[in-house]
Amino acid sequence: MIRILLVDDQPLIRSGFRALLDAEDDLEVVAEAGDGHDGVALTRQHRPDVVLLDIRMPRVDGIEATRRITADPALDGVHIVVLTNYGLDEYVFEALRAGAAGFLVKDILPEDFLHAVRVAARGDALLAPSITRKLIDRYVTQPPQADAHTVLPRLTARERQAVTLAARGLSNDQIAADMVISPVTAKTHVNRAMTKLHARDRAQLVIIAYESGLVTARRP
After folding, report:
1. Residue 153 pLDDT more than 90?
2. At what positions is 4-aspartylphosphate found (predicted)?
3. In terms of domains, do 208 and 170 share one?
């Protein structure tokens, strides 16, 4: 059973999501909260598999709530998916940087919403190649914020290659084809790189790659 916490300041939104989730045999809503402060407290109380967390809320917003949850070692297995009305905006970038596994727009189709919750519960990032490319665009005009030399020694040559391709927006299958290896090996390289760079998921791996200068964004 996948245990889910809903955090949104709009009761109607929460009730709609809850109705969808509770109708599934493998999904269970364990609690609801109307702001990030209560969301963090309930996350510590229930330790759900997935927290669906609105970005913009009173008292404590979704970004700060994400930071508090990901900073708590006891909540290491909790996967955060941020909810937004606005698509990929600055708030979403900050939430991904803070440790969210991905994001969903609230007008998502019900079947896509349910699939996304299950993907997040498995520990996979909700970050499609198209979203990765938008992250890349975000860094085109920004200089690196760290020294690549502090990152490079931690990775093997094959891991660096895999990270570079992931940061260019390639899926694991595409990385495998480019590196002439199996998809399983490609995923292993990416996962080992995430471990070495202390990235919670693929979203953070891409951000680290660009902020460190390991990969340089190229203008179209």
Report:
1. no
2. 54
3. yes
